[in-house]
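Q: I'm writing up a methods section and want to include an example of the input and output format. Could you take the sequence below and give the corresponding predicted structure tokens, formatted cleanly so I can copy it straight into the document?
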Amino acid sequence: QVQVVESGGGLVQPGGSLRLSCAASGFAFRRHFMGWFRQAPGKDREFVAAIGWSGIMTRYSDSAKGRFTISRDNAKNMVYLQMNSLKLEDTAVYSCAAASSVVMRTEPTDYYYWGQGTQVTVSS
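A: Here is the clean output for your methods example:
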């Protein structure tokens, strides 16, 4: 049974940091690209960051570049998103997802294992 479970969300002030975690099981984790996406109220789901099989290849959205860092631990089937210098506009539900691919994927439709998401709220 495939499971993707996010954790680590919460309320943080602008300029603060959060580290999101994603625990995956039930599929060949080491052969899947892993991505983080987010969806704010009234907006479409958008790409945040993705990481390749070995963790060497990464891709970030323009809004995440320089502030967020995606990483993975294949021994633990975990993916992380370190978020620094958080802004009000980062408020959203953040979801972790898996894509069976040999090339980088950034479209939500390319990912087919999804978690329920974790709420991140940036507010003063």
